[in-house]
Amino acid sequence: MIRNYDDTSIDSIVQYSSSFIDKSFSDVLSEKELDIISNEINQYKNNRKGHFGDLVEKYLFGIENNSDSAPDFSKVGVELKTTPLKKHPKKVYVAKERLVFSMINYMNIINEEWESSSFLKKNKLLLLMFYLYEKDIDLSTYEFKLIHLLDLLSETSKEDIAQIQQDWKTIVNKIKAGEAHLLSEGDTAYLGAATKASTSKSRRPQPNSDKPAKPRAFSLKQSYLNSLIQKYLGKEDRETFSLFDDKSLPKTIEENIHSRFAPYIGCTNTDIEKELEIFYEKRPKSHRRLLVNRILGTNSNKIEELEKADITLRVIALEPSGVLKESISFPKFDYLTIVDELWEESAFYEQLTTKRFLFVVFRKQKDGNAILEKIKFWNFPMKDIHEAQLVWEETVKRIKAHKADALPGIKDSPSVHVRPHARDSKDTIPTGYGTYEVKKSFWLNAKYIQKQLED
């Protein structure tokens, strides 16, 4: 095909890229090129990560695949990124996965500063080409649905830039501390450190530690990328509250939220309600969550920055003795699906390593009130991931042995267990061996969460 663009002009590159909207390789390439692509696709059977992006670079733009530290369009400083969409009944399209960048060089990055970082040099200007992913169809028929040139430091808000910068520093500081092997996507809000390796056993050396670490790459989290997509589509939720409506508050999520809660730590819910002019004839069951929302400045559970960072706000109510009685659940799993998963590709592993929580902790008092004791941002620590793996593996083993009614309980592990997560005993799903069993999920043990709150 004729590649009709000027690689010294950003406008020309964007205009050329936009000509592919609602088109696929099949619509624009010659028969000879399609035959070559078809042979490649048959060779890899859709199992090669990044294969589609490599094909786009080579056949649509004439860029040979490389690991160059410079942007793909080096003359204008523009990096080309292809990323999949999936259909959504209400939002038209949503992000299928995170947007992954180049590998993190553990040895070099500890000597970098944000403003002159290799990450910014390569990714400050991003040409985003979103295509519609559909299962079981040929890569050559994927259609492009959205093209956007993203200037990471000028198009995004000052608050988003500040958060991305803080995320970068969090990752780098952990590497400097010799803890690259303990990195998790749950450590950060928008910019993550995603695992990126051909096999789960791949490891590379890190500075300041003799422990090898998984290869990782910077990535924009799926939840943050989805917020950008909705913005480009004009589908932003106007009812969602932003923590940064008040421009006088700190620019990062954690600092902003800590500043909002600070005046009320140590106060009873009654005192806080008086201060915020909240009056009840009879308190609803959800009164603590409603109070938390008001402290944050809203009456809604929809908070933009928490949604973009995939942070789950959980109100924790300790007993007067300080004991936590309630465990924390993850989404229900499917007996038919979980037995075909590999641990590091499983839904539970993904949840543990990407999910971040904001715990708002009240301690009940004997007079019926509760003191707002603390808030804590938390994600599952990688040092405990092996214990969770053992529970997951035992769960899969028992389901395969037709024992879905006897999965690991709270006494079988200090951190994780399995128990029902259903409306009632009739809320069942098939086990895969001819019976139906009540819906279940993995739970973080109450005692384990209590210990995390105390640390």
Automatic annotation (TrEMBL):
The lineage's top-level taxon is: Bacteria
Under Gene Ontology molecular function, one entry of this record is:
endonuclease activity
The chain positions of domain DNA mismatch repair MutH/Type II restriction enzyme Sau3AI read 61-167
Transmembrane regions: none
Positions of the UniProt region annotated as Disordered: 195-215
Q: Keywords on this record?
A: Endonuclease, Hydrolase, Nuclease
Q: Pfam families, from UniProt?
A: MutH (PF02976)
Which SUPFAM superfamilies does the protein's record reference?
Restriction endonuclease-like (SSF52980)
List where Polar residues composition bias occurs: 196-209
The record's section on InterPro entries has: DNA_rep_MutH/RE_typeII_Sau3AI, DNA_rep_MutH/T2_RE_sf, Restrct_endonuc-II-like
Enumerate the NCBIfam families for this protein: restrict_Sau3AI
Q: What is this protein called?
A: Sau3AI family type II restriction endonuclease
